[in-house]
Design brief:
about 150 residues; alpha+beta; four-stranded antiparallel beta sheet; three-stranded antiparallel beta sheet; about 35% helix; globular; binds coenzyme A; MshD_Acetyltransferase; Acyl_CoA_acyltransferase; GNAT_dom
């Protein structure tokens, strides 16, 4: 199991005032992380984060410690989600905590199935999927994880 989190960690819904914090988090990600998160190598601009915050088709959760955004997970109304954690804060259970909370949010919405796409080499994400009961389909260039939401 991942080591227990020893920082005071808060998982909460993102609000407009978090744009700067989320931007900083994305700046901390490596090109490989960005590829894992967005399936593209481009760096995320401030404007793109503003656009995400202005859309109503998703719930974004943040992991915050000491006033700093150290993780983010977004679930869209179509059931697809993705997650990213600050590279300096990994392997402490934050990714698992974010996805667990997203599952709870999906339960309280009308979403029947949630889904993630990742690369076959993304061991931490595949491990999160396995631990949380996702059905995993392994393809040559991607892994698809799905979870039926029980109510
Ligand atoms: C995927 C990601 C969110 C995981 O975040 P995290 O906070 O490190 O996740 P956790 O600490 O909950 O770890 C999940 C599992 O993977 C394991 N793990 C994490 N990083 C690992 C590493 N580098 N090597 C081996 N195992 C690792 C953990 O030990 C844990 O397994 P366990 O509970 O059996 O010990 C993070 O790696 C990330 O932001 N990656 C870039 C973006 C991305 O790939 N997003 C997913 C696309 S949907």
């Amino acid at each position: 199991m991942a080591e227990s989190i020893n920082l005071p960690l808060v998982i909460r819904e993102a609000k407009k005032g978090d744009i700067e914090g989320v931007y900083k988090l994305y700046q901390s990600l490596t090109p490989e992380d960005l590829y894992m998160r967005f399936f593209t190598f481009h760096r995320v601009s401030y404007e793109e984060i503003e656009q995400l915050f202005s859309r109503q088709d998703h719930v974004t959760l943040l992991a915050e410690s000491d006033g700093e955004v150290i993780g983010e997970a977004t679930l869209y109304d179509d059931g697809e989600f993705s997650v990213a954690v600050d590279p300096r804060q990994r392997r402490g259970g934050i990714g698992t905590a974010l996805v667990s909370e997203l599952i709870k949010r999906a339960r309280s919405k009308t979403i029947k199935k949630i889904k993630f796409y990742t690369l076959p080499e993304n061991y931490p994400m595949i491990r999160i999927g396995k631990k949380l009961g996702f059905k995993l389909e392994f393809h040559e260039d991607e892994v698809v994880g799905t979870l039926e939401i029980e109510r």
